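Worked problem 6 (solution included).
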Amino acid sequence: MRSSEAPRARKQPPETKATTSAAVAARLAELEQSLERVRAAYEAYFLGLERRPPESARQQLHHRLLETQAITIVNTALRFRFQTLMQRFTQLASHWNRTMREIEAGTYRRDVLKAQRHLAERASAKKPG
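Solution. The predicted structure is:
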């Protein structure tokens, strides 16, 4: 650095500014509730109670998690809580993707068992007796 120049102050990008612990805790609580709602919606879809998977809710949650990831979390306990939340989301997302692939391939266990029961009922209904 040249002696004639004054040191420049570093500016943090707005998305990486540290926020208060209370604000981060509130955001994490809201994200945990959202994750639980999306998980329940997927379970309802997998049980056949919903016609479509909750993809838009999942994408919104994913974007909010990415936004939160850009925030500098100074509190170690809150950082651990967020990392645990991200791991849980990643685990559930892979479970949802795997189950969706099984449904599309026709190998989803619940659907296969339901089809077998239906075929057994049709076969027993055709038999006289």
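Discussion: DSSP finds four helices and no strands in the chain.
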